[in-house]
Specification:
The complex is a heterotrimer. By secondary structure, chain B is of the alpha/beta class. Chain B is built from 18 helices and 20 strands. Chain B folds into 2 domains: 4-170, Ribosomal Protein S5, domain 2 (2-Layer Sandwich); 187-419, P-loop containing nucleotide triphosphate hydrolases (Rossmann fold), CATH 3.40.50. The longest helix of chain B is centred in the last third of the chain and has 19 residues, at 401-419. In chain C, a hairpin with a 2-residue loop joins β2 and β3 (47-57). Classes of the chains: A alpha/beta, B alpha/beta, C alpha+beta. Chains A and B meet through α7, α8, α15, α16 and β10 of A and α6, α12, α13, α16 and α18 of B.
Chain lengths: 367, 503, 123
């Protein structure tokens, strides 16, 4: 039966609902695997999927796929297996099979962090810090492995030793985008790469919306960090709403189109995420003070912040995107002193360059 | 007896050419042998016409040999010695002692200015020969000490001089004025940009190469040009080097104490930048010698052009090989490279959205590697100022270039005193080994650097650069020891500090 | 044919007169050598001159001097060289053209082109 599920999954257009159909109509898996026309007719398989199915059956693809998975250490989780995430059952079209690369699907609380590929440095650092904080609180982060917000979220989780799941819009053996190859390897150490597409499937535009439903299904809460109006992240959020997940969005500047979608979610009823520490506490049920500081951030123990550095950080905390001139004027310091402070602060991860020649404070951990 | 000599140029060096003339009977013809190029062959017409303007009619077969025979001779600067040689063979003039003549002849006998006067002057000085040059080249040659030189405006004057009938005007040696030329642009002309100005000050003080990253319209070009005027004025020796290159190319001499500034466009050919070509002319990088070489939009430069800049940036000179031997040009420059943060130029801009796909930005960033970036010590980003911010600077006068130059000079002096015994002049020149041995950190500084290097993933080279820059910062402040204060500021300009946000 | 010869002869006579007036010392005329003919041979300021005389009536297609083409010039060079050898002259010599144009009113105009091999003959 599992072979049948694998095959059906591979020829596209089938999800777990087909299992009910097969059961109801009393179609036997042997017949299906044999490619009997009658069985396939009763299943309602026609046209291109039917051809694809027959081709796969006759070429013995199934065995090969299983061998490949074995060889690469990729696990196969079938619908109905004990290890199959039950939350995916909330979807109206759960997957037949999940390919899993890496350690395992993290149990416990999972939060999705999604957003646009063309994010700003603000969005990127928000996603990073949020994921980092969640990791410190023991919460797994789910995202799509893409450029921009997704990547920042995965990196934030990995940097703080957390577990993260990247749901792929390709076969899990394909690292797309290729730039994230090393990131994906790091993710697999503690977390997992998950997908429902057969090995070797290259990236194709229609595969990503399908993938988004999995992200929505796997988590209890979905956070959209920064997304324009028509974006995959907003779609994920709406899918999450449909399956009854809590949707949060990080507010962005109302003048920027890059966060128009995420802002719209808020006015449509999503919860505004305005404090990372509070959110992490809420999700994990733990107090903020118990969280370890965000990895890599903060001055080293034997070098407390100098007065100039504290002052510059204060100025940046009031308003970001400042040039060195702005800071120097505001703090009545010399340009050299400001640069000195920024050099140290940026090395500690407390300040970041948000654009050419402009600086902003990084999202602070909760004191 | 060969007293009539001219020169031919080989790179920036002048080589002596002996002009031998033999006149016999037969159908009138002038022939020139000795590997003359096309311009030299055309000398026959010009020389004949010039001599006719004096009423001298050349008759019979004239054979002109330019020795030595195996060196190619180029250029119209051999016109004058050929004319003198022919006139001498005709008995019209007497050349009593060996001398070097150079100049192009106009058909009416005027002597035109040529390129290569200064290399020729240096040759004349070396050989101890007097030098006869066109009036138009007098200015540049007058800066060369130790040469006996005469100005020739018309060939008639020269012949009169050689006949002993009249005297040409001798060249008066002169000193180029010590005063500093007016900076253009002056630092005070640039509004705001404190971070970039500080970076340029550090670059000038320690001779560190700079990368300016900023959106279009942020003012990178203006800042690059301002750098040349906070550099110390050319020393006498440096001035001669610059003069030599300019004279070889035939460029007029401007105020000599200015450092050169040459901008190269990314579509330039390798030959125009590095030198070479059929007549072995020096390229832009040599014209920028002792000054600033500016590479704008340097991500657009072809790989092979960037590769060819590797050697001169490392060694300070460039060699071009020919079958007949190799030629060396000076090429010690301070490099300023400029680029955008992304293909459309507006990544991270507060007002203009970036139109690039993330993969495009990534590809663009990956182009930033290679021989040029290896030599950059300072990475600085240049903001595009909003109209609001610009207005705030109205009426404010920032520090002018002269003030910055003062500090730069003091810092240079400290470096010279420290490094000259080891054979270096500036902090940037220091090789790795010398750096580790000579630049000492206090224990706090060492701990700080170790900690930070891990956080921001500084490579070994990155650390070296931070140390060199910190050393310059300390020198600008007049501080003896290196502390975390200097390291912190150096970190603000570290590699990778240019764009950390698209991580 | 006869007219052409007349014109030619008259032209040569005119040329001879003009050249003398200009300071050429006439040495020979209508010299016949094995490889060709020389119209006039003269001497001027220490240089021997071979003068080729060309006559044309105006209205004809080419100006007279343009009728001396490359092959004609080569011939003149060969013939001139042979002549100089014959008389034993080792000094400089050159080739001039005396171009005579007869106007519609019958009045002849003379123009001398000195040293025509300059730039054309490579040594």
């Amino acid at each position: 039966m599992k072979k049948g599920m694998l095959l059906l999954n591979a020829c596209g257009g089938f999800d777990a609902t087909i299992l009910d159909v097969a059961g109801d109509r009393g179609i036997s898996w042997e017949d299906i695997l044999a490619g009997s026309c009658a069985a396939l007719d009763r299943l309602g398989m026609k046209g291109a999927p039917r051809e694809a199915f027959l081709k796969l059956v006759s070429s013995g693809w199934c065995e090969r796929e299983i061998d490949r998975c074995d060889g690469m250490g990729i696990g196969l989780i079938f619908f109905g297996d004990p290890s199959f995430p039950s939350m995916l059952g909330d979807l109206c079209d759960p997957p037949l099979v999940l390919y899993l690369g890496g350690k395992a699907l993290p149990p416990g609380e999972r939060v999705a962090v999604v957003g646009t590929r063309k994010c700003t440095s603000y969005g990127s650092s928000c996603a990073f810090d949020l994921a980092s904080m969640l990791a410190g609180a023991g919460v797994a982060v789910v995202s799509g492995g893409a450029w921009g917000i997704d990547g920042a979220a995965h990196r934030g989780s990995v940097a703080s030793g957390g577990r993260t799941v990247a749901v792929m819009g390709t076969g899990v053996d394909i690292f797309y985008p290729s730039r994230h190859a090393s990131l994906f390897r790091e993710i697999m150490e503690e977390g997992a790469l998950l997908g429902e597409l057969p090995l070797g499937t290259p990236p194709r535009p229609w595969q990503f919306p399908r993938r988004n439903r999995l992200i929505a299904g796997l988590c209890s809460r979905c956070v959209v960090v920064e997304a324009p109006k028509r974006s995959g992240a907003v779609l994920t959020a709406r899918l999450a709403l449909e399956v009854g997940r809590e949707v949060w969005a990080v507010p962005g500047r109302i003048t920027d189109s890059v966060c128009r979608g995420s802002n719209a979610l808020i006015s449509d009823g999503a919860m505004p995420l305005t404090d990372i520490g509070e959110f992490a506490a809420l999700v994990s049920g733990r107090q903020g003070e118990l969280f370890p500081p965000i990895q890599g951030q903060g001055a080293p123990a034997n070098f407390p912040l100098a007065p100039d550095e504290t002052e510059v950080l204060r100025i940046l905390g009031e308003k970001g995107d400042l040039t060195v001139d702005n800071i120097a004027t505001e703090g009545k310091m010399s340009a050299a002193a400001v640069l000195r402070a920024l050099g140290a602060l940026s090395a500690y991860g407390l300040a970041v360059s948000s654009g050419p020649g402009r600086w902003s404070a990084r999202v602070r951990t909760r004191a | 007896m060969n007293r009539v000599n001219g020169v031919t140029l080989r790179g920036i060096e002048a080589l002596k050419v002996e002009v031998e003339v033999e006149m016999t009977g037969g159908l009138f013809a002038i022939s020139v042998v000795g590997l003359p190029d096309a311009t030299v062959k055309e000398a026959r017409e010009r020389v004949r016409a010039a001599l006719r303007s004096l009423g001298l009619s050349v008759k019979g077969r004239v054979a002109v040999n330019l020795a030595p025979a195996d060196i190619p001779k180029e250029g119209a600067l051999i016109d004058l010695p050929i004319a003198v040689g022919i006139a001498h063979a005709m008995g019209e003039v007497r050349v009593t002692e060996p001398a070097i003549f150079m100049g192009e002849l106009a058909l009416d006998g005027r002597v035109r200015r040529i390129r290569g006067a200064v290399p020729a002057a240096l040759l004349a000085r070396k050989l101890g020969f007097p030098l006869f040059i066109p009036e138009g080249n007098a200015r540049e040659v007058s800066l060369v000490k130790g040469v006996t030189a005469w100005k020739v405006g018309h060939i008639r004057q020269l012949f009169a001089h050689l006949k002993g009938a009249a005297q040409l005007q001798a060249l008066e040696p002169r000193e180029e004025a010590e005063e500093n030329p007016d900076p253009d642009p002056d630092f005070s002309d640039i509004k705001g940009q404190a971070a970039a100005k500080r970076a340029l000050e550090i670059a000038a003080a320690g001779h560190h190469n700079v990368l300016l990253t900023g959106s279009p319209g942020s003012g990178k070009t203006l800042l690059a040009r301002a750098l040349k005027d906070i550099l110390p004025p050319l020393s006498d020796e440096e001035m001669m080097e610059v003069l030599l290159v300019r004279s070889t190319v035939g460029l007029p001499l401007d105020s000599s104490r200015h450092r050169p500034f040459r901008a190269i466009h990314h579509t330039s050919s390798t030959i125009s930048v590095c030198g070479g070509g059929t007549n072995l002319r020096p390229g832009e990088i040599s014209l920028a010698h002792r000054g600033v070489l500016f590479l704008d939009e340097f991500t657009e430069f072809r790989r092979d052009l960037l590769e060819s800049l590797r050697q001169p940036l490392e060694d300070g000179f460039i060699s071009v090989s020919r079958a007949s031997g190799s030629v060396t040009y000076p090429a010690r420059v301070l490099l300023v490279a400029a680029c955008n943060p992304c293909p459309c130029g507006f990544l991270g801009d507060p007002r203009e959205p970036c139109r690039c796909a993330p993969s495009a930005v990534d590809r663009y960033r990956r182009k930033m590697s290679g021989p040029i970036l290896d030599r950059i010590d300072l990475y600085v980003t240049v903001p595009r100022l909003t109209p609001d911010e610009l207005v705030r600077f109205e009426g404010q006068t920032g520090e002018c270039s002269a003030g910055v130059r003062e500090r730069v000079l003091r810092a240079r002096k400290i470096q010279w005193e420290r490094w000259n015994p080891l054979g270096f002049q500036c902090n940037a020149e220091l090789p790795e080994r010398a750096l580790r041995k000579q630049v000492k950190l206090d224990p706090d500084g060492r701990r700080f650097l170790k900690d930070v290097a891990g956080r921001v993933h500084l490579s070994g080279r990155g650390i070296s650069r931070v140390l060199k820059v910190a050393r310059t910062i300390a020198d600008l402040a007049g501080d003896e020891g290196l502390t975390t204060v200097h390291l912190a500021e150096a970190l603000a300009f570290r590699e990778g500090s240019d764009l950390p946000w698209n991580r | 044919m006869a007219k052409h010869n007349d014109l030619g002869a008259a032209g040569e006579a005119l040329a001879a007169r003009e050249l003398s007036r200009l300071g050429y010392r006439l040495v020979d005329s209508n010299v016949r050598m094995k490889m060709g003919e020389l119209d006039i041979v003269a001497e001027e300021e220490g240089e021997m001159v071979v003068v080729e005389v060309r006559t044309r009536t105006i209205g004809r297609m080419l100006p007279p001097e343009a009728t001396v083409g490359p092959s004609k010039i080569r011939k003149l060079v060969r013939t001139g060289r042979a002549y100089m050898d014959r008389i034993g002259w080792e000094g400089p010599w050159r080739i001039d053209i005396a171009a005579i144009t007869v106007g519609p009113d019958g009045k002849p105009e003379l123009e001398i082109f000195r040293n025509i091999t300059v730039g054309i003959i490579e040594p």
